[in-house]
Design goal:
disordered N terminus, single chain, 295 residues, 38% helix, alpha+beta, globular
Length: 295
């Protein structure tokens, strides 16, 4: 009799297994959007666990470029030290696909990393402002500058045309988002909104756009083509953590000679990049590799 009761008990337990399995499947299904960032307003499917904070990451398998094309977007502001740092690698990579018209430039004076997170330097980063790109290939390049300079001393900023505006709180973020919506395709706007506004920066409760002084849209490079879409916000710390600071230190050694950015540009054209800043060639090679991967 005891054996019979035990058998009936085991059979009754077996009846619950399909229901338990169904509950587990439902829980996993509901939890997936929490484990993997959802598409937000951009409609993108995130295809890996990486996020494009200070590193290139493939953020979508979707191709946003015209058929047979690869498009490269730079969204920045003229005085940005990270944008200035990025400009050298972009120039090196894009020169393989057309004629890049640039103006040598210095970023605004800022406190920027030179090695470890707590090791910074107050300096200006030599860089390039992109004026135009004449392609001789399937690669197209679109530089977008949302602001000119940012003046923290009197809470004002210039626009690329020189007009001065004032800011307070998060007003620059709102202004730049409005400008970006006018100047960029919707998919570019949506990607930046997703990763700079709605996705918290690791270790923080808000998006990276709100963490600057003042809060503003962070320089971003996006590469899209038949094989998907890649993105980076800020400079590539995997190439060299202290890249902006080392460029600023290199300029400081020349007493911020106004001709130094043009001299670096000529060194690139001559294939003779100084060893102190050889990482700009490494970054150029990486951007070139991603462009080729996107094709």
């Amino acid at each position: 009799m005891a054996k019979r009761k035990k058998k009936e008990s085991n059979e009754s337990k077996l009846l619950y297994i399909p229901f338990i399995a169904l509950v587990v499947v439902l829980i996993v299904f509901l939890m997936l959007p929490m484990i993997h960032p959802n598409s937000g307003s951009s409609g993108n499917s995130v295809v890996n666990a990486q996020e494009p904070f200070f590193q290139f990451a493939k953020v979508s398998s979707q191709d946003y470029a015209p058929p047979g094309k690869v498009e490269v977007y730079l969204v920045s502001w003229i005085g940005c030290p990270f944008g200035a740092s990025d400009s050298w690698g972009l120039y090196i990579a894009l020169s393989h696909y057309g004629v890049v018209n640039v103006t040598p430039n210095y970023s605004d004076l800022e406190q920027i990393p030179i090695s470890a997170p707590d090791n910074t330097i107050s300096g200006k980063v030599p860089g390039l402002i992109f004026n135009s790109f004449n392609p001789n290939s399937s690669v197209e390049f679109h530089p977008i500058y949302l602001l000119g300079r940012i003046f923290t001393s009197n809470s004002s900023a210039s626009l690329p045309n020189g007009t001065i505006i004032t800011y307070s709180g998060n007003s620059l973020v709102s202004f730049e988002l409005n400008e970006l919506q006018k100047l960029a395709p919707s998919w570019v706007y949506n990607l930046i909104y997703q990763y700079q506004i709605t996705t918290p920066f690791p270790g923080h409760n808000e998006g990276i756009a709100y963490l600057g002084n003042p809060p503003h849209i962070v320089s971003t490079v996006i590469i899209t083509g038949p094989n998907g879409t890649w993105m980076i916000m800020g400079y590539d710390q995997q190439v060299n953590f202290g890249m902006p600071g080392l460029l600023a230190q290199y300029a400081a050694d020349y007493n911020y000679n106004t001709q130094l950015p043009a001299m670096i540009l000529q060194d690139i054209k001559n294939g003779n990049i100084p060893s102190q800043i050889s990482f700009i060639q490494t970054e150029g090679n990486q951007i070139l590799q991603i462009i080729q991967e996107a094709m």
